[in-house]
Amino acid sequence: MRIDVVTIFPELFEPFRSTALLGAACAQGIVDLRSHDLRDWTRDRHRTVDDTPYGGGPGMVMKPEPLVEAIEALAGAKGTADARTARVLLLSPQGRRLDQAWVEELAQESHLVLVCGRYEGVDQRVIDLAVDEEVSIGDYVLAGGELPALVLIEAVTRLLPGVMGNPASAETESFQHGLLEGPQYTRPAIYRGHEVPAVLRSGDHAAVARWRAERAQETTTRRRPDLLGAGRGEETR
Description:
- By secondary structure, this protein is α/β, with parallel strands linked by helices.
- The protein is built from 7 helices and 9 strands; from the N terminus they run βααβββαβαβαβαββα.
- It has helices spanning 14-17, 20-27, 64-75, 100-106, 124-130, 146-157, 205-223; strands spanning 2-7, 32-37, 50-51, 61-62, 87-97, 111-116, 133-136, 190-191, 194-195.
- Helix 3 packs parallel to helix 5 (124-130).
- It is elongated.
């Protein structure tokens, strides 16, 4: 999978590219992550990417010209199926909330272009002309789209074949089947008076599976009852 990120802070992505699972995936050629400086698409000597908003108001708005030209250089023009080579996502508080079902869908793509806004946001014409979808990672506001982009990248790339050492790990995680994952334990068997449940040390795989399923249901009921009965893939805005 190729992932292009458009940002005014491309250096934020460099250490991420060489760390942990993503670093290994990049080294193996499973993921091709590239960060691009939006200012490379500016044409004035100050390399301007923002301006004051029409109608007044606080803050600055990201200009359409460099963003649209950057996206088209990386993904092709919107609305031209033969030229469009990527799915273009703008990280935005106004976007559809990212969930595991959408992550799984995005993991099927061969090429993503992630656009990181800053300031008060981007000119609406960027969205109209060049963006396929807006993505939010939660109901709160950050200074920019870089951290949300990193969240999306890690969530998506860890599902790609060959990235995780044990592919079965993804099948038992929280949200994978509409439930939270139950408690986990490792050695020692007793720590400060707290003992690992006997069933997990029994060697009875069927009993262990039942226990884990029950604990997952119990944990979800207690902590996230909103997940119970929710259809997977349902859009949340």
